[in-house]
Amino acid sequence: MNDNNIKVVNSKKRERMNDSMNLFNSIETYFNSLIYSNSIPGLIRNYLPGFKNLSEKFRKNNKWLFYNFLEIIKQRRKEIALMKDNEPINSSDLLDILLTINTPRDANGYGFGFDNEKSMTDHEILATILDIEIGGRDPTASTFCFTVYNICKNPGVLQRLREEIVEILGNDFLRPITFEDLNKFKYLEAIIKETQRIIPLNPLIPRQSLVKTTLNGHIIEKDTPIWLHQEKLHKDKISWYEPEKFIPDRFYHNNIEAINKEKNAFIPWCDGIIRNCPGKKMALVILKCLLILLFRKYNIELVDKISPAKVMYFSMNRSFDLKVNLKKIENFY
């Protein structure tokens, strides 16, 4: 390969990387636009100077995002249509899975045995991917950082996590982590839940009343927008013992507090009547894998062992400026 060919290849790689970054940045802007639309009344968003300009910026971004995502979906749909019948589909690729659901190429069998099931349209696939991407990327990164902070701040928690890692995976650092392994990490799951309770990503959750009701003496009309204060729920002294303390055992095994807590006192995934966070399962898998790999191989210490976790709020609570020292572990014991 000569120098000119190398330059062309590198140029294409940079172009693909830039396209990916533009797409990821656009998704984050889209997420912020959802919070913005739910938080600011339409009269202010659309007519007040400053807000009007921001609304226009969000509209342009969302139009660009939807167009480019749909082009990717349409292109892949065409490619699959041109494939030979015996040519395999990538069963680990989300887009391929969504494009082939309830089609003859469905890896789970055509229609899952139900005659009335239909395949997904391009717009349905777009909405599904955006739901999963929003729920499984930025929030997951912040939850990961908050969890690392809480583990490092509590040596007893760190010790028990290391013991669980050794118990399930042994001392072989090269042993792959299987999905079955992840289901066994009950204490790690309790750590993640307690982190979500202490530092909820969404302090305020938008809801709408389905019927006319009375709440603490206040009449709430049907279809009234309501904001739930998630952080207040998660630190309610009636529902939680010493709510300001980080105690993963609240959620470990059959802990009485976790079982008998007041209904809806813990809603990290914004639980609703019909659905909750669509990225929940993917986010938990990513969180568990990252935390296991990190604490399996490294000793981690906070650079600042005194200050509370640094939280920045814009559309959600986000971790920033988390500084740690890493040292590779030779042996656990």
Which SSEs are present, and which pair or pack?
Blueprint: H1 3-39, H2 42-47, H3 51-81, H4 94-100, H5 122-136, H6 138-153, H7 155-169, H8 179-184, H9 186-198, E1 204-208, E2 213-215, E3 218-220, E4 225-229, H10 230-234, H11 256-260, H12 280-297, E5 298-302, E6 311-313, E7 317-319, E8 324-328
Antiparallel strand pairs: 1-4, 2-3, 5-8, 6-7
Helix pairs in contact: 1-3, 3-5, 5-6, 6-9, 6-12
Textual characterization of the structure:
The structure is a single chain. The protein has 333 residues and is mostly helical. It folds into 2 domains: 3-131, no CATH class; 137-201 and 234-328, Cytochrome P450 (Cytochrome p450, Orthogonal Bundle), CATH 1.10.630. It contains 12 helices and 8 strands. The chain has helices at 3-39, 42-47, 51-81, 94-100, 122-136, 138-153, 155-169, 179-184, 186-198, 230-234, 256-260, 280-297; strands spanning 204-208, 213-215, 218-220, 225-229, 298-302, 311-313, 317-319, 324-328. The strands form 4 sheets. Strands 1-4 form a two-stranded antiparallel ribbon. Strand 2 and strand 3 (218-220) form a beta hairpin. Helix 1 (3-39) crosses helix 3 (51-81). The chain is globular and about 55 Å long. 16% of the residues are buried. Residues 4-12 have low confidence and may be disordered.
Low-confidence stretches: 4-12
Compute the number of structural domains. Answer: 2
Tell me the number of strands. 8
Give the fraction of residues assigned to helices. 40-55%
Helix count equals 12
Shape: globular
Radius of gyration: 23 Å
Distance between the termini: 51 Å
User: How much β-strand is present in the residues?
Assistant: 5-15%
The fourth-level CATH homologous superfamily of the largest domain is: Cytochrome P450
Element-level helix/strand string: HHHHHHHHHEEEEHHHEEEE
Strands ordered across the widest β-sheet? 1-4
CATH topology of the largest domain: Cytochrome p450
CATH class of the largest domain: Mainly Alpha
Pfam families: p450
Cofactor: heme
Keywords: Heme, Iron, Metal-binding
GO molecular function: heme binding; iron ion binding; monooxygenase activity; oxidoreductase activity, acting on paired donors, with incorporation or reduction of molecular oxygen
